[in-house]
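Good day; I would like, with your permission, to put a structural problem before you. What I wish to show you is a protein chain and, alongside it, a tokenised description of its three-dimensional fold. Thank you for your consideration; the sequence and its tokens are set out here:
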Amino acid sequence: MNGPTFAKTSLATAGAAALGAAATSPGSAWYRALDKPAWQPPPAAFSAVWTPLYASIAFAAARGLDAGSDDRRRRRPRRVFAVDLALDAGWTPLFFRARRPRWALAEIAALNAANAALLSHARRADRLAGAALLPYLAWTGFATALNAAIAARNPGR
């Protein structure tokens, strides 16, 4: 993995993280009033989990992109990475700002598809890059289940 690629993937990932963090409002009256499942982690757990996940996303993307043999072979993985980050950053505004758990559920389903594509590209390019993405896929799978539970428990919201 070369430094410039890692710097670029780190900046892109940090940007997605910052956008998501800016839209998060677990202390809002709307969010506190939602009926949430008993298995939802406490709010502090989310930042504790997302910080290393974003680092692993940047690491995996850099390794995967650097493993490509030429610029043409890197083009599609770059697009997949960009779409994945856009979807990642887009969930939080839909859920917390628009207050649309069902829309957010549809969006996170698209994110899961993008995650699978990102994992596929990364794993083909570099096994360690693919392995580094597995916790991200596990967490977004959990987040999907949590989003679905909240949407089901709050049908009028």
